[in-house]
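Task card 7
Instruction: Convert sequence to structure tokens.
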Amino acid sequence: MSDVNSTPRRPHPWALFLTVFLIATAGLVYELVAGAVASYVLGDSVTQFSLVIGLYLSALGFGAYASKFVEHSVARRFIDVELATALLGGVSAPLLLFAFARGASFHLVLWGVVLGTGTLVGLELPLLMRLLRDQVVFKDLVATALLFDYLGALAASVLFALLFVPNLGLIRTSLLFGLLNALVGLGSTWLLVDEQGQSFRGARLRAAAVVAFLLLLFSQAERLTRAAEVAFYPDPIWFAEQSSYQRIVVSRGQAGFSLFLNNNLQFSSADEHRYHEALVHPVMATVPNARRVFIAGGGDGLAAREVLRYPEVERILLVDLDPAITRASTTLELLAAQNRGALADRRVQVVNDDAMSYLARTGERFDVLIVDFPDPNNLALGKLFTTRFYSIARDHLTPQGAMVVQSTSPYYSRGSFWCIVRTMEATGLQVHPYHALVPTFGEWGFALARAEPFSIPHAPRLGGLRFLDGVQLQALFHFPPDMSRVDGPVNRLDNQALVRLYEQEIGRYTAF
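Output:
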């Protein structure tokens, strides 16, 4: 047999089965990192993850097939493959972010990383199984190795979203698992020793160098993240934090500052008043003397700021999922000044929870519901634009209550905008759609709704607004031909038609 000269001394089989588990965990983490970066910089999260995982699984097959050509020094080749996986997988997140930020061909780099790590991981399992073949009965070897392989994939898929990315971020996560692979390679230089007694001294030095290199990068992860992010934002980064749910970045320049969540612009201080006046004051004009207001989302406190202009408002319940954004909007000087300390007002109660789940649990009814969610660019957000959510919201309105929904752009995502309107109508709501020009975003859409027929408001109830007056308010409800109503699907929990439609439309305006 060609493997005779490199037959390793027999380590305990369970040590190598544990290695299988770690390899599978790290391999899938690298692909989840690649998919997350792709969706982070390009949007279209469903498509990006689908393509990345599909290509990764194919690459595993290529690697497994290529293992047949390793005929000599199997243990040494396994260690070399492990170190190559550590290097490529470990630097995958910073490499992809820098590739996009520096104008490189992002897709070529992305597919290269996915194919490369997938092929290397695909090589590892067959090589390990060959190292174990003389120690474990074949049927037990195959069953146990595959069991640990799949358990590793399960661990990666669960811990990636719940533990690693929320606490470490994408760059630290990829570097951490690169270190894990490198340490497995280093440990294997002791675990796998030739029967002739010759150790893998050269491989051990290479493994130590890879460990040292990845440790250095890990220690500089925050600098790497900042350096990669600089090109994403038009102004210098003033504040950045990785929360359990998203990357929060505030950039600051001569014209003001901007808030980004997962690289998506939420507002610019230069013109956010247009968006938030258009969001809040039409619905407040529809319900005279509204006293109880529910805000879904809006963790920046800017919608609450506008509602607090009305002295008759007694209670504002703001439910936003991420405590990091509501905390930043309370404690960071720039944000707190922009929202005028709204979240610290005694009339405002902040709850960090899923707004849909919270509304479904509470028995409280509100005079006004303001729905200020991000655009439906993934399935988690898409559920908040379904008939289910709008039915729950409708049932929590007082008899004369009204709601307003941020509804994407009727110009850039025309079909999605009218899909939201049609979905609200499918729950029995009477809907008056409208739009406003926000220079930073372009034309932006909203939907004003009540359970009973009603007329559009003729003027804001307050004077002295920076954007809205009576003439402007009425003009918001007129749509020119290129934004007029189009047919589209109703968005339901079991079809999530809106997410697919939104990705198709916005995909025309994103960089590929």
